[in-house]
Amino acid sequence: MIHLLRRCRLLPAVVLLLTMGNQLQAQQAPLTKLLDSFYMVKDPARRINIYNASLNQWPDTGRVNIFYNNARSLIAKEFAQANNLAEAKKWMALIEETGPENRFSVKPGIKLEVASIMIEKGDTAYGISQVQPWADSLYNAFMATGKPGLYYNVVMEVYTPVLINKNHPAQVVKYLTPFYEWSKHSFATDRENVMRTPKDKYDLKTNLAVQYAKALSLTGDTKGAIQVLSAMQAGGLYNQDELSKIVNSYSGGVKKNYASKVLDSLKKSNLNRLVKFQQYKQDINGDKIDLKAIHAKYVLLDFWGSWCHPCRASHPHLKELYTEYKDKGFEIIGIANEMAKDTAQQVKNWETAVKEDGLAWRQVLNNRNGKQFDAVTEFGVTAFPTKILLDSDGNIVATFIGNTGGNDLGNKLHELLDAQH
User: Fold this and answer.
1) Distance CA 223, CA 201 (A)
2) Hey, is 284 helix, strand or coil?
């Protein structure tokens, strides 16, 4: 959640620097220098001095208000981290924003961040006083409109652990069930946190889906809990050993039936998905894709698009891995998802990119027969690039999101294929 809130506040500061010249003209240079010094210093007292000096020279008006609100937000956060709630509240109260909330709004973000910090420091009373009314308001609006508010996911990421610790699983189920169903059986913040956190530092117990499954289990909904855990297992994004350990800490039917139910569910899901993939998808030469005929131990599905710069930036390293492992039982199928509205333009962009990138493995255009089978949706792809590694039975072995240079994929292939030679 912290990563998301930080990202939401970065752009206003950048926008401020880019547009300041129109408003301040000759004063731009000294104020920019002052801005730099504010964010460079580490001492909170010095930061406040810079803030006050800036305020004396440049009034809090117009676009400059964005800077001051971000400055107040940062100071409030630092006081919260120092366990000085009174000062944190004082600085939050100074934040003034007009108009409806949007993803660049400062006030709701720092409100949630300070609440989260105080909960971590043991002041759950304050955290609940801030988050519970917000959660109720978002939930009621969701029920009325059928659409979750902008902050629904991140508010619940803060509030859910509190409800679990206070033994209120029914409340967790109430808040999360409609959002889980609306978001197609996943939580966006879970994927973002996995992507942004080093593997050795990611705590799966903080995962919102894990907490949701636990709440379902505690309310007696064994079937629902297993379905949530099955979706996590099928996605290949999480460490399966850690997930199994968490399930083993549960009591009752989930622990007893998890292994058999999940495996059965996965087999049915994988079979259905692969049958449809082979039925509706053709490669760039118009040939059907028969995964069994490929005779590979592992097949990588590379979800990309001609428009996606990180996707295409990952291709040179992917070509190196393909050369290294193709004779050891490794194959790749590229699945492009094009953004052009015109079908002919989709095909042209795709074929041109395949040629330009020199991709030797089989290529599929997901837009073709997309209504009959959308591979992006069926494989739960929410970001590009995404690379999904399948075993010979079509089970997801691992999922790699984003372009990290291919190190994780390379390490996985080394683990799976080099040890066998």
Assistant:
1) 30
2) coil
3-state secondary structure of 60: coil
Residues 6 or more apart from 229 whose CB is under 8 A from it? 213, 243, 247, 254, 258, 262
pLDDT tens for 100-139 read 787 778 999 999 999 999 999 999 999 999 999 999 999 9
User: Who's near 182: CB < 8 A, 6+ residues apart?
Assistant: 142, 146, 147, 148
SS3 133: helix
Query: CA quadruple 372, 376, 382, 383: dihedral positive or negative?
Result: negative
**Tokens 């007009």 map to which residue?**
98
Which amino acid type is present at position 226?
I
CA dist 24 → 30, 366, 383 (Å)? 10, 50, 39
Distances in Å between the alpha carbon of 113 and those of 99, 166, 187, 190, 251?
Answer: 21, 21, 19, 17, 33
* Number of other residues whose CB lies within 10 A of the CB of residue 229: 28
Residue 157 DSSP SS3: helix
Kindly provide the b/e burial profile for residues 236-265, where b requires at least 16 CB atoms within 10 angstroms of the residue's own CB: bbbeeeebeebbeebeebbeeebeebbeeb
Both tokens assigned to 128: 């609940």
Task: Pick the closest to residue 307 from 348, 267, 270, 253 (CA basis).
Answer: 348
How far apart (Å, rounded) are the C-alpha atoms in residues 257 and 264? Answer: 11
Q: How confident is the model at residue 10 (pLDDT cuts 50, 70, 90)?
A: very low
Query: For 125-180, how does the pLDDT look when each residue is reduced to its tens digit (9 = 90+)?
Result: 999 999 999 999 999 999 999 999 889 999 999 999 999 999 999 999 999 999 99
User: pTM of the entire structure?
Assistant: 0.68
Look up residue 87 and give its amino acid: E
Residue 178, number of CB atoms within 10 A of its CB: 15
